[in-house]
Write a structure and sequence with these properties.
heterodimer; A: Rossmann fold; Rossmann fold; six-stranded parallel beta sheet; six-stranded mixed beta sheet; about 45% helix; about 20% strand; B: mainly alpha; ABC transporter involved in vitamin B12 uptake, BtuC; about 0% strand; cell membrane (chain A); PnrA-like (chain A); signal (chain A); membrane (chain A); Peripla_BP_I (chain A)
């Protein structure tokens, strides 16, 4: 019994101590609401949070985050941050679009920024951060088509929403470009670009789904799989780890998964990076020096908002010739001579 | 609580000492024990004492510390209480219904469809009609499990779990049907219900961010109706009789098959209402994750409330408070929201094991009361 009493007393004094001492207030607070993937998803939410962390280090500001466990939490989470004296609230993900809009309208003096959503017409106190992810995915598609031995590639998504399917669109068009250039016939399983139908796990959480979907694609002959579903892709990486990278390779999304998933880093051929950390940090900076304006901020290959990560351990699997071609295509996309969208 | 006040309460209420122990003292100590173990969990994960203190202050502040905190607590509690009442009804009738989640989904879907289909109707008709549709479809969906039990002997635990899985996929499918899916969206999301179908927000005139809505009146009515049904009506007596002893009930001339189907249907109606409450009161539309595990949390609520309507009411409020307060814990102390899940689970463990609570907390229990009464 004494242990319990002791702990209780300790808790009591800790509380009193805290109430007496309210931490030194920073001048500026940036707050983030995640979607249901969670802050430690190794990919989407984590990259955006890194932007806040970078800003915390660079500008000596305060940062806070709130994880959403279910879609019903979005509105409530934003509301609890509104009461928490945030100078800017960053909501992460397309699925928070409606909730962010509602909160922004109800609180016109609060500055918001949302990742992966652009409002039409723009809301004056919301800055949308969107990414031309298809430009980098185009490169990844071209690369995968050239590296694949089976000439079959696989792709699957989390939920059929634009920020997810834009990866799949770019990837498929990159493969098409390869086929057109080389007269090859590499096929992509899991996404029909015209009917807008494909393979979706319908969640951003289940690693089991990631494994099962990759297994299905592998069984159908795919030797490179692109999972566009945040942490779900970690399940696919686990499968590739067991099968060996000569049988199955994974292309990461959002962050360079070689670094964020160090245990399985060797299975990633490359990653389609979406530099949310850079744009989030930039948005915080504009909010701090009062140059914040509602509207849209677009990340592209040109400004480094999206990119293809390096090949790391699988560098030897990519022929020198392919690397040179990728550089040419990159320049072509930036210059506008190669169209990634029809 | 001191022994004298306990005695006074006993005299005033004329109920047995062990009931008070079971209904009040055990849950109270279970909560205390869960909070302490939660603190120890935090300590074990390298959270320092100051932050632990701060996080529990935040838990309190976020659940009852302000008008918006209370509003959030009530908003989170409403569906849990509704679905919990349904499960409690089933438990009383001896049916262990795991299917509330599926019934919530089907009921919510029916409410949304009714809402956006009859947009021309005035609120006075459309809102009750949408709620009714939710309750009706929830009841029908749950009756499937009841009917399977009666007709084939299939155990309701198995069939309701399967029906949950069917409901998930059915929802995914329905949300992409052209007449349900929101225009211009490729992802599974339903059209929004018109204002006339929504449960009005009660405190929007003070602050538009206050989410508490008219669903809380629905909850109070449901608590009263379930209480009446269980303890004042003939049907409720039959539910309880077949729950206590199905054979005896049958020999007494009760039609057990009908009772099972009716009990499942009433449980499903309440779960369906919980779903309707979410889509009409909180979300305004349906998405694949709109049930957010309410149907499963409600099982815990019903168990914590000892399958008694009043108990369910308080258990639901407690879970709502934990949810709302947990959010504040994240904001103020940066403690993971998963911790709230741990605390909730610990509460259930302690409630489910009253002997453990009695052993750990010797105060407030009459010595040996369990042994003399033969235990539970």
């Amino acid at each position: 019994m004494t242990t319990f009493t002791y702990t209780l007393r300790n808790l009591g004094s800790a509380t009193a101590f805290l109430l007496a001492m309210i931490g030194p207030a920073h001048a500026f607070t940036a707050c983030q609401v995640t979607d249901t993937g969670g802050i430690d998803d190794n990919s989407f939410n984590q990259t955006a949070w890194k932007g806040v962390e970078d800003a915390m280090a660079d500008f000596a500001i305060d940062g806070r985050f709130l994880e959403s466990q279910a879609e019903t939490d979005y509105e409530a989470n934003i509301n609890s941050l509104i009461e928490g004296d945030c100078d800017i609230i960053i909501t992460v993900g397309f699925l928070l679009g409606d909730a962010t809009q509602k909160a922004a309208r109800a609180n016109p003096d609060q500055r918001f920024s949302i990742v992966d959503f652009a409002y039409e017409p723009a809301i004056p106190n919301v800055l949308g951060q969107v990414y031309s992810t298809d430009e980098a995915a185009f490169l990844a598609g071209y690369l995968a088509a050239g590296v694949s031995e089976t000439k079959i590639l696989g792709v699957f998504g989390g939920i059929n929403i634009p920020p997810v399917t834009i990866f799949m669109d770019g990837f498929v068009r990159g493969v098409d470009h390869y086929n057109a250039q080389k007269g090859a016939s590499v096929s992509v399983l899991g996404w029909d670009i015209d009917s807008r139908e494909g393979l979706f796990t319908n969640n951003f959480e289940s690693l089991d789904d990631g494994r099962a979907f990759a297994q299905n694609l592998y069984d159908e002959g795919a030797d490179i799989v692109l999972p566009v579903a945040g942490p779900v892709g970690l399940g696919s990486a686990a499968l590739a780890d067991e099968l060996g990278t000569d049988k199955l390779k994974i292309i990461g999304v959002d962050a360079d998964l070689y670094f964020t998933d160090p245990q399985k880093s060797h299975v990633y051929l490359t990653s389609i990076t979406k530099r949310m950390d850079a744009t989030v940090r930039q948005v915080i900076e504009t909010a701090m020096n009062d140059t914040f304006n509602g509207g849209v901020l677009v990340g592209s290959l040109e400004n480094g908002g999206v990119d293809l990560a390096s090949f790391h351990d699988l560098d030897s699997a990519v022929p020198q010739e392919m690397k040179a071609e990728l550089d040419t295509i990159r320049e072509g996309i930036i210059a506008g001579t190669i169209k990634v969208r029809p | 609580m001191t022994d004298t006040s306990m005695n006074d309460l006993m005299k005033a209420k004329m109920i047995g000492r062990s009931e008070i122990e079971d209904l009040i003292i055990v849950p109270l100590f279970a909560i205390v024990a869960a909070l302490i173990l939660g603190a120890l969990t935090m300590l074990a994960t390298n959270v320092d004492l100051a932050t632990i203190g701060l996080s529990y202050v935040a838990l309190l502040k976020g659940s009852v510390g302000s008008l918006s905190a209370i509003s959030e607590t009530l908003t989170a509690a409403a569906p849990l209480i509704l679905a919990g009442l349904g499960l409690a009804l089933g438990f009383r009738a001896g049916l262990f219904n795991i299917g509330a989640e599926g019934q919530v989904l089907m009921g919510g879907m029916a409410a949304v469809i009714t809402g956006f289909t009859f947009t021309d109707l005035p609120a006075a008709i459309l809102m009750p009609m949408s709620l009714l549709a939710g309750a009706l479809v929830g009841a029908l969906y749950a009756s499937i499990a009841g009917w399977l039990r009666v007709a084939t002997g299939a155990h309701e635990v198995i069939s309701t779990i399967m029906l949950n899985l069917i409901a998930y996929r059915l929802l995914d499918y329905m949300l992409r049907l052209p007449f349900i899916q929101k225009e211009g969206r490729a992802d599974p999301i339903s059209k929004s219900v018109p204002d006339a179908a929504e449960l009005p927000r009660l405190l929007a005139f003070i602050d538009p961010n206050l989410r508490v809505h008219a669903g809380i009146f629905l909850v109070l009515v449901a608590v009263a109706v379930v209480y009446w049904l269980l303890f004042r009506s003939k049907l409720g007596f039959e539910f309880r009789a077949s729950g206590e002893n199905p054979q005896a009930a049958r020999y007494a001339g009760m039609r057990s098959g009908l009772i099972i189907v009716l009990a499942m249907a009433s449980a499903g109606a309440l779960a369906g209402l919980a779903g309707a409450n979410q889509v009409l009161g909180v979300l305004g539309r349906a998405t694949p994750g709109f049930s957010a595990g309410i149907g499963f949390d409600a099982i815990a609520v019903a168990l914590l409330g000892r399958s008694h309507p009043i108990g369910v009411l308080f258990a639901g409020l407690l879970f709502g408070a934990l949810e709302a307060g947990g959010r504040q814990m994240q904001v103020d102390a940066g403690v993971s929201i998963d911790l709230i899940g741990i605390i909730q689970a610990l509460i259930i463990v302690f409630i489910a094991a009253p002997l453990l609570v009695r052993a750990v907390f010797p105060w407030g229990f009459r010595k040996g009361s369990r042994q003399t009464e033969g235990g539970q």
